[in-house]
Structures are given as structure tokens and as C-alpha cells.
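Re: the 137-residue chain
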Amino acid sequence: MLIPKYRKYKKAHKGHLPQGVSIRCNKISFGNFALKSIEPGKITSAQIESARKVIVRKTKKVGKLWIRLFPDIPVSKKPAEVRMGKGKGAVEYWIAKIKAGRVLFELDGINKIKAFDILTTAASKLPVRTKIISKLS
């Protein structure tokens, strides 16, 4: 799973979901087909890894994959049935906060029908609504 090698502070504030439409990473840069989010959300490193495994398994070492997001925000959690106080809990998992319109995955080296099938399966592993876009219209 994806986690950062280094972070200045171990734990982060909860924050909020980003509003508006993504102005960066909103176009296809590397491949010919891409999976693009159409709503903001939080994607965990486990969900990214699950989608990545599906794509790699279905491409069968033919296509090339680019992952265009990285989970760099820690989410902490206290154990069940622990009393209030005594500090913040340990880091449980990592998330990436994404805006609407962000490109999540890119594919190249496979035909259009196969790419749409693969990206549809990968989209089912993610908690945000997505659409498939292509450079080749």
C-alpha cells in the first residue's frame, strides 16, 4: 500500500473535503484513457491499491498504468471502548483528498473496448463517482 516515507508531523487535523473543481491534474497527461472523479471525496491507500490490482490483473502486462494520486494525509483512530482524553490515537490509515474533476488513473497500450472494461471494474473499487475519458475521441 502507498504511504509517505517522511512527514514532518506524524498526525494531522481532520480538515474538510476540498470544494470546487480541480484545476490541476484534470487532463490526460501520460496515457490515452483515464478514470476521472466527478465528485470530491476521500480515497484510502487500500482502495487505491485494490483498484491498481484490478487494472494490473486485467491488462495482463500489456498496457502501462499511471497512478495520479497519492495518499499523504494520516487518519488517526483510538481503540474501541477507551475513555476520553489521554491524547490523540495512533495513525490507522492514509487518505488522499480529491476534488471533482481529478484524474485518478491513466492507461495506455491497450484498445478502447478493453480499456473501458478495465477502468469500469477499477471504478467499482473506489468510493467516488467517476467517468472514463479518452484522448482518442
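The beta strands are 33-37, 41-44, 64-67, 73-77, 90-98, 103-108, 130-134.
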